[in-house]
Amino acid sequence: MKITVLGTGAGARCHTARLTELGHQVVVGTRDPQATLARTEPDMMGTPPYQDFHAAHPGIELRTFAEAADDGDLVINGIDGANAVQALSAIPRAALAGKTLVDYAVPYVYQQPDQVERPWPTPWGVMPRLEPVDTDSLAEQIQRALPDTKVVKAFVTQEQETVTHPKEFADGDHTTLLAGDHTDAKNAAGELLRAYGWRDIVDLGPLAAARGMEMYAHLHTAIGLALGTRFGVKIIR
Ligand SMILES: NC(=O)c1ccc[n+]([C@@H]2O[C@H](COP(=O)([O-])OP(=O)(O)OC[C@H]3O[C@@H](n4cnc5c(N)ncnc54)[C@H](OP(=O)(O)O)[C@@H]3O)[C@@H](O)[C@H]2O)c1
């Protein structure tokens, strides 16, 4: 399948590499391909410049967000949560119409005056807040901005290394979650997850469940900081 990964961050690279390994044709979207390839410094989280990944994965096309979105049959959104709605809305609607868009972004807002001092893996070391939160979610905002696109919230409750390589933990015997208003799109996201190696995929129902999935990011990060390692969560029935 031709799959678009919108984003060049650490998480997006996990999907790009793994999907390519699985035999999919992947096209990556960025704001400005030339500028992205010209960067030589790591990003704020210490992720090496994209040019390193690009050189190590020859043949993966890097295009603008709009061109990449137009190219793929299924789209994964890995655009920074605070900028995702604006960036996705700028893509011509026809490029995304009728397509499944799997969104794993967290609507973190960094460097706000109301943030509490707390260990956090950013250069500022304070906990970001979520916006929207509680009565809305980023995934619902994206769905409202792209009414012709079928938005699924998935992948968001783990690091993307774990999402793309679930068997690293308990041979894959842990749980991942998805939500959305379109059954066929959720089936497509579930197929991708099964190809990655997931066996326990829980469908939380309508896209409104994305509120809880995004809010879980705070708890997930707190557990990760406490354990000092990536981890999986198993839902026992
Ligand atoms: N990494 C993970 O394991 C993980 C796990 C769960 C959830 N998430 C969430 O998923 C999202 C993506 O994470 P990530 O690690 O893949 O990448 P990221 O570093 O959070 O985001 C990088 C992407 O956001 C784009 N971007 C940044 N500012 C922008 C702006 N002003 N306008 C348009 N685009 C902008 C960048 O565009 P350029 O390509 O042009 O630089 C880049 O493609 C985040 O919200 C993150 O919190 C990540």
Description:
The protein has 237 residues and is α/β, with parallel strands linked by helices. The chain has one domain (2-104, 136-227): 3-Layer(aba) Sandwich (Rossmann fold). It has ten helices and ten strands. The longest helix is centred in the last third of the chain and has 18 residues, at 210-227. NADP nicotinamide-adenine-dinucleotide phosphate binds next to helix 1.
Please give the number of β-strands: 10
Spatially, the strands of the biggest sheet line up as: 3-2-1-4-5-8-9-10
Q: Give the names of the bound compounds.
A: NADP nicotinamide-adenine-dinucleotide phosphate
> How many individual domains?
1
Indicate the radius of gyration in whole angstroms.
17 Å
CATH architecture: 3-Layer(aba) Sandwich
The CATH topology name reads Rossmann fold
Point out poorly predicted stretches. none
Shape: globular
CATH class: Alpha Beta
Distance between the termini: 34 Å
Category from helices, strands and their pairing? alpha/beta
Biggest pleated sheet: 8 strands, mixed
List keywords for this structure.
two-stranded antiparallel ribbon, alpha/beta, Rossmann fold, 237 residues, 10 helices, 37% helix, 18% strand, eight-stranded mixed beta sheet
Give a brief rundown of this model.
The protein has helices spanning 10-21, 33-38, 50-56, 65-71, 84-89, 93-96, 138-145, 160-164, 183-196, 210-227, and strands spanning 2-6, 25-30, 61-64, 74-77, 100-103, 108-109, 129-130, 150-154, 175-180, 200-203. It has 237 residues and is α/β, with parallel strands linked by helices.
